[in-house]
Amino acid sequence: MADQTNNAVILPAIGKDFELTTRPVPVPGPDDVLVRTNFAAVNSVDRIRQLYGFQVPTTPKVIGNDTTGTVVSVGANAVSTYKVGDRVIAAADGVATGDDDHESYQNFVAVPTLTTAKLPENLTLLQGSTVATIALTASHILFDGLKFSIPGAKEQTKPLPAAGSKPILVVWGGASSVGSLTVQLAHKQGFAVFAVASPRHHERLQKFGAEVTVDYSDPEATVEKLLAAAGQRTISYAADTATDPSKTLPHLENLLLKSAAATSSTAVPELAYVNFAPEHKWKEGITSGFVNIVTAWSDRKDISEWLFVSGNLTSWLADGTIVPPTARVIPGGLGGLKAALTESQGGLSGERLVLEVAQ
């Protein structure tokens, strides 16, 4: 490594502004690769960690989930899969382990091969920078939030849809980065996807596989349009990927309960949601599941293995089955994090904000 300076963003204390510092270059463990970060995508959980200390065991603390760059060192158990010079995308596990060496807002980050994938040649590093964590989140929506069995798992307690059955899954917030990946992944896994989003994103979501697209601007009208589109089919599943679930969860609950009543369904409808909703009062008759990808490196390693280790994510990016959100670089390198988080507070659609860590 010609330049071994490791610049990093740290949170000096809960509720304080981020600061730039330098720290030692991480040493990868046996199951890790060390990545020289070119781009790091910004996540909404960064703000939650900053303000409320979510998954911040001590301060000062390096943070960051997504990294895209080039492998510069390989752990002993990873040499059969990765080599120096490989271009990779990864979901860093520092949010789960608390290890600063495994957080992405720094020049060099150690990432586990469990949540690392090779970037196919058809994508640039910038194009690939937006996808790792949100693809993991979309997978957790299906296999953790909604409890479907992973394809190929020995125990198929709740198999994915049989060919041609196409149960309806409503994705409210379909134009968000997680929403767009959920639309694509759910379509691939056999669901009839109904996406709720601004009309300017409808054509794109239809290309991603959405069978029905509905405007979100009048939620009560949105519910009625979704019910009309479903006809005699029951809407049994929903995913809330919107920025503020307090504004969307009540309407999704109404949708699921109305659909069950209209079709005389006795099945309990299910709803997965990705953003915190601690004050929401849940209605009876619905099963809800909060999607927390912190378990990707512990209880739900099986999801990570299915997405990353198996090569699925690399293959889907290569053949266009999965299309990453557009990346928009915020100026200032690592120093642009504050501006990026401020801009992302109102929610983003069709794109993700990215820091250019190294050229």
Automatic annotation (TrEMBL):
One of its GO terms (molecular function) is oxidoreductase activity, acting on NAD(P)H. Keywords: Oxidoreductase. Pfam families: ADH_N (PF08240). The keyword Oxidoreductase applies. Residues 15-355 form the Enoyl reductase (ER) domain. It comes from the Eukaryota. Coiled coil: none annotated. The keyword Cell cycle does not apply. Belongs to the zinc-containing alcohol dehydrogenase family. This is Enoyl reductase (ER) domain-containing protein.
